[in-house]
């Protein structure tokens, strides 16, 4: 099972797989979600879907209409325990700046990693591994620390044998 980061949706929408350029990309996400190959989490949904309908863009609308049922809840005990361990590691790590730690505590990344860890799923993100980064806590750095498998969108698509 693959768990998608917000940047998988956002980067595709804003660039290389926009809805009018690659509708089959979006259809494949829904198709594979329906086959239990792809999911995301509630916290990612919150990042994508604006609480103000007047600010809804095409990604917001597509997500609400086509993918909303595939966002998993993060309120189970195993996920919460993993989340706490990840936040403790980040907070106590002297490598990261205070602002990096604050941002990491606010955004969905730690929840996404905790969910993938708890369920032993593969996390999909466009972030690259950079262990020297201080100003931001990158998903791949945390994934390696907590032994969570991660790939990028293209690796996931190849693994699922998606072609356009």
Count of helical stretches: 9
The helix/strand order is: EHHEHHEHHHEHEH
Q: How much of the sequence is in beta strands? A: 5-15%
Biggest sheet strand line-up:
3-2-1-4-5
Q: Over all CA atoms, what is the radius of gyration?
A: 16 Å
Q: How would you describe the shape? A: globular
Sheet with most strands? 5 strands, parallel
Low-confidence runs:
none
Number of domains: 2
Structure commentary:
- This protein has 164 residues and is of the alpha/beta class.
- The chain has helices at 6-14, 23-34, 42-48, 58-67, 77-92, 98-106, 109-119, 139-145, 153-159; strands at 2-4, 38-41, 71-72, 122-124, 150-151.
- It is built from nine helices and five strands, in the order E-H-H-E-H-H-E-H-H-H-E-H-E-H.
- It has a five-stranded parallel beta sheet with strand order 3-2-1-4-5.
- The mean pLDDT is 95.
């Amino acid at each position: 099972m693959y768990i998608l980061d917000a940047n998988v949706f956002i980067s595709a929408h804003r660039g290389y797989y926009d809805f009018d350029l690659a509708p089959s990309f979006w259809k494949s996400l829904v198709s594979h979600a329906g086959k239990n190959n792809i999911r995301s989490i509630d916290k990612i949904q919150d990042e994508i879907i604006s609480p103000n309908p007047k600010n809804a863009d095409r990604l917001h609308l597509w997500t609400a209409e086509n993918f909303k049922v595939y966002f998993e809840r993060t309120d189970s005990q195993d996920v919460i325990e993993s989340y706490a361990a990840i936040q403790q590691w980040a907070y106590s790590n002297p490598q990261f700046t205070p602002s990096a730690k604050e941002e990491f505590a606010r955004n969905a990344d730690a929840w996404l990693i905790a969910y993938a860890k708890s369920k032993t799923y593969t996390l999909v993100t466009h972030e690259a591994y950079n262990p020297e980064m201080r100003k931001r806590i990158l998903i791949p750095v945390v994934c390696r620390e907590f032994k969570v498998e991660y790939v990028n969108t293209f690796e996931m698509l190849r693994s699922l044998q998606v072609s356009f």
